[in-house]
TrEMBL record:
GO terms for molecular function: oxidoreductase activity. It comes from Bradyrhizobium neotropicale. Pfam families: Epimerase. Keywords: NAD, Oxidoreductase. This is UDP-glucose 4-epimerase. Residues 4-163 form the NAD-dependent epimerase/dehydratase domain. Belongs to the NAD(P)-dependent epimerase/dehydratase family. The keyword NAD applies.
Amino acid sequence: MPRILMTGASGGIGSSLRKLLPPIYPGLLLSDIKPPKDLSPNEKFKAADLSDLAQCEAICEGVDGILHFGGYSVEGSWEDILQANIIGGYNLFEAARKKGVKRVIFASSNHAVGFYPRHHKIGTDVTPRPDGRYGVSKVFGEAVGALYADKHGLKVTCLRIGNFGEMPLDHRRLAIWLKPEDLVQLCRIGLEHPDIHFEIFYGASLNERAWWDNHRAYEFGYRPTGRAEDFWQHAMDEQAKLKPDPVGDYYQGGAFCSIEFDADPSRIIDWSKR
Ligand code: 15L
């Protein structure tokens, strides 16, 4: 039975996966800067600040595979992103190498490619177009993952997660929604599939409006079960409560693109009206 470490156990995704993973990976080791508030006595937890390499090494001891959900999960100041995602992300891969960990699943994000317009369908091999410092840190993490796979033989899977949750929250999320159980499937592919070397998959369920070509995940056996369109009415009701956002509504990254946007807005052309 592989010994699995999950960082970011107190965060949004970590809190949900803490409940779903133990039947698959008994003995799952959880980590975060602070323990989850509802930590139960049968869960194993070791605190670590990822910006400290020695602490990263301590949590990687005796581990076969890592689910790296730790770090900053939204746009933030350069200092916060630098410590948690750039230094923290690098430390995590370096600690994994030093401690002989075999596989790492890196939680990347759709914000690594958020500045692609919504009418542009993209695969996982496009040039990164990050939509903020957070997105840049995800591109960095994917690059470090590729380096450690190619140079050190670590088996690395990067998941460009869309929007994780029980249902799509608005119109944009109908295209990028990821059901928790589908994320578990993607994690299992990364942790168990014999042919993984370095892969990038989109973390998305069965979304008819998807902007992403995720065929690589399907080639590795991914069979998502969450159907975004089943929640169409809910998503549209929620969308109706939002203010129009000319930049965010045009690009895949949504509101992350409009934060601090001061470029020429005339480059936003509505192709559907041409
Ligand atoms: C992400 O990467 C964030 O971690 C999450 O909080 C959401 O904002 C999500 O992207 C999204 O794009 O909806």
